[in-house]
Design goal:
heterodimer; A: 220 residues; alpha/beta; 6-stranded mixed sheet; 10 strands; B: 484 residues; alpha+beta; 5-stranded mixed sheet; 15 helices; 14 strands; binds adenosine-5'-triphosphate; binds magnesium ion
């Protein structure tokens, strides 16, 4: 279970305070499929990054399975991101000089796994997203949809509790978007992974179990 | 991340920018090359010198020179050649009387006079045209001072006159290195030019005619006198003195004795006086006679030096003090090693500064390369953080990359300097057999130099990578991921 209590994130620009998040309270149950929508600049990414342990709130606390993230330092937080969270990005963020397999192996390397085990697990993950035949391809040799699937496989590598996807279909056409969403849905249903998707696309949001809208750093 | 993963990742990342990596590594290569060449040269020379000193049992020897004020061991020291030259007023003659006194000093087991720098133009093997720079050391062979190792043939005895023990350089020059026994019995020719005089060996000089003019004397000056010596042995000498050849001091004394004709005008003067007294004109010019004059250098000026052997290396100081008290110059191998260390320290410092500057510039190159790399890979750093990399992991990643630049620079520096050493040896072997410096032994790469260089260049890499690595680790992951 993921719980946010009174989470605020404030940026100060030229003496003016901008609340990226303003006293947000939120509970996400295990196995949920949550879609977050809202206008640009409303604080969606900030929220997702705080849940994912990439960013820290200025006040309030996030607890995941009764473990507080607010008190965690770099090591603990990195370990949390490594084991519990998988990130999927709008622009894929794959390592251009690595093959698909090597890209998926990145989080496993940080988990200090054996090279042989890493290869095995990365292969499994690529098969799950339907890229078993593209393992030796580099990102430049893959289509946008395929790249996003590599990204999902990478997010999946360490068997995370949750996958956080920040506009995963933002760079894809309708057909590819549907493919990505169906993969995420499968992961949610078959593996019980909690999915948090940020999206502007109502069709994507429509596939989620729950929906949530943010405006000006507040949940509506 | 595991150690091997860091190395793999550093390797992958460095091969992304091949030309930049190559240039950065080259700078380290050049820097380390200069340091390696300098160290290997200095250690090479030092080791051959020490080898020589040890092989000669030099640490139980005391060299006595005529001049207490002279900086070096005058003439005829162990290493230095030359025959002393003009002596200062303080100098004491190292003649046979001196030899006897010195030999009688307490703790002295034995003593030998040393002569070198025998007047000579060149030397060569008989029936060969190639000449060698003359390099002869004369000593009393039947003393306990030198245990001259012989690789083939026999040692000198005090009765040997026109006999010579040649060094390995001589063998090499005439191509006998692989079959040294074949050179035994062959003759070495000393080519001497002594003007109108001759050594006290072989033919007498030509009597000058009564009407001897400048032309006649010039002709005498150009006259080559050939003295032959039979090769009876080949010395097993060390790399540093392999150009040295050895003869008996008794023969050297004969060679160093100048024989010349001098006009004796006493008969003419007597004739002239008589003719004046008797007031009767007589042609007295024909009364001039020629007498043979002999000038024994060693008796007149003393030996170049005298070497004493101590009963025990611990007594060198006592002996040196006793010799110095008698007003002679004295030097021991220890003094020489001390001097040598001073010189080497000086040369080492200068070369070290040059190498240091080169490496400093190379280190700046690494910093520059790594700062560029962190800029290029900001987004990547963000992704790695999102995938679970700690700040320390990022720091280590970049440090390993920088360390690898240094490490490969060191590796190529070593390979290149070994190559240069090999090529240098080839060239020296082919063109300069006569140079009395054994280059083949000079470039040495002991294990401590190899590991030391690799450790040092790697350390330079680590230190240069520190700042860029810390910068990369400090990046906020959210900002890094958003970076365009
Ligand atoms: N580093 C920063 N410095 C200053 N302001 C920031 C910073 N990061 C975010 N903000 C502000 O915080 C607010 C929320 O940003 P966030 O990225 O969460 O929006 P978002 O909902 O994800 O928008 P979008 O849909 O365009 O991605 C924005 O008003 C933004 O200007
Ligand atoms: Mg956003």
């Amino acid at each position: 279970m993921i719980e946010l209590k009174n989470v605020s994130k404030v940026y100060e620009l030229g003496g003016e305070k901008i609340y990226a998040l303003n006293r947000v309270n939120l509970t996400i149950a295990d196995g949920d499929f949550l879609a977050i929508t809202g206008p640009s600049g409303s604080g969606k990414s900030t929220l997702a990054n705080i849940i994912g342990g990439l960013d820290t709130p200025d006040s309030g606390d996030v607890t995941v399975d009764d473990q507080s993230l607010a008190e965690a330092h770099d090591r603990a937080l990195s370990h949390y991101r490594n084991k519990m969270v998988g990130f999927v990005f709008q622009n894929f963020n794959l390592q251009p000089n690595y093959t698909a397999l090597e890209n998926v192996m990145v989080p496993l390397t940080f988990a200090k796994m054996d090279l042989a085990d890493r290869k095995k697990r990365a292969t499994e993950c690529l098969k799950i997203v339907g890229l078993g035949d593209r393992m030796k391809h580099r990102p430049g040799e893959l289509s946008g949809g395929q790249r996003q699937r590599v990204c999902i496989a990478r997010a999946l590598a360490n068997n995370p509790k949750m996958i956080i996807a920040d506009e995963p279909t933002g760079n894809l056409d309708t057909k590819k978007s549907a493919e990505i969403v169906s993969i995420l849905k499968d992961l949610n249903r078959k593996l019980g992974v909690t999915i948090i998707v940020i999206t502007h696309d109502p069709r994507v949001a429509g596939e989620a179990k729950k929906k949530l809208t943010i405006t000006d750093g507040k949940i509506r | 991340m595991r150690f091997l993963d860091y190395i793999r990742s550093a390797f992958k990342n460095l091969s992304r920018q091949k030309s930049r990596t190559f240039l950065t590594v080259s700078a380290i290569t050049v820097g380390s090359l200069s340091v390696i060449l300098m160290v290997s040269l200095l250690t090479g020379i030092r080791t051959s010198l020490m080898d020589l000193l040890i092989s000669m049992d030099a640490f139980s020897l005391v060299t006595v020179t005529p001049d207490p004020d002279a900086l070096e061991g005058g003439g005829g020291g162990l290493i230095t050649s030359g025959n002393g030259g003009p002596l200062s007023s303080d100098a004491k003659k190292l003649d046979d009387a001196a030899l006897a006194t010195l030999r009688a000093l307490p703790n002295v087991v034995d003593a030998t006079p040393i002569g070198s720098g025998i007047w000579m133009e060149a030397m060569r093997l008989e029936n060969e045209t190639k000449k060698m720079w003359p390099s002869l050391i004369a000593y009393e062979p039947e003393t306990k001072v030198f245990q001259m190792p012989i690789q083939t043939g026999r040692k000198l005895t005090s009765l040997d006159m026109d006999k010579i023990v040649v060094g390995s350089r001589f063998l090499k020059t005439y191509g006998y290195t692989d079959h040294p026994q074949d050179i035994l019995g062959k003759k070495v020719v000393f080519i001497m030019k002594m003007g109108g005089s001759a050594p006290d060996w072989g033919e007498l000089p030509e009597k000058p005619p009564t009407n001897a003019d400048k032309e006649w004397w010039d002709a005498q000056n150009d006259k080559e006198r050939l003295i032959t010596a039979e090769i009876i042995g080949v010395a097993e000498n060390s790399a540093f003195d392999d150009n040295q050849n050895y003869i008996n001091i008794a023969w050297a004394q004969r060679l160093m004795t100048q024989v010349r004709w001098e006009w004796d005008d006493s008969a003419r003067k007597a004739c002239e006086e008589q003719s004046q007294r008797e007031r009767r004109p007589v042609d007295c010019a024909s009364q001039n006679t020629l007498t043979l004059m002999k000038d024994d250098q060693y008796t007149k000026n003393g030996y170049g030096s005298i070497i004493l052997k101590a009963d025990n290396p611990d007594n060198l100081k006592t002996i040196s003090a006793a010799v110095a008290a008698k007003g002679y110059g004295v030097s021991t191998a220890e003094d020489m090693v001390e001097e040598m260390n001073k010189v080497f320290l000086g040369i080492g410092t200068v070369l070290g500064i040059i190498g240091g500057i080169a490496l400093f510039v190379a280190a700046i190159g690494i910093i520059n390369t790594m700062v560029m790399a962190t800029y290029e890979r900001i987004r990547e750093i963000g992704v790695m953080r999102a995938c679970g990399a700690t700040r320390a992991t990022i720091r280590h990643l970049f440090t390993f990359e920088a360390a690898m630049l240094g490490f490969w620079g060191g590796v190529f520096g070593l390979l290149l300097s070994i190559l240069i050493g090999k090529i240098g040896t080839k060239i020296v072997d082919r063109y300069a057999t006569d140079i009395p410096i054994p280059i083949d032994q000079i470039a040495q790469f002991p294990w401590w130099l190899v590991t030391g260089v690799l450790a040092f260049t790697t350390l330079i890499g680590v230190l240069s990578g520190l700042y860029p690595a810390v910068r990369a680790a400090r990046l906020n992951p959210v900002d890094a991921l958003r970076y365009e």
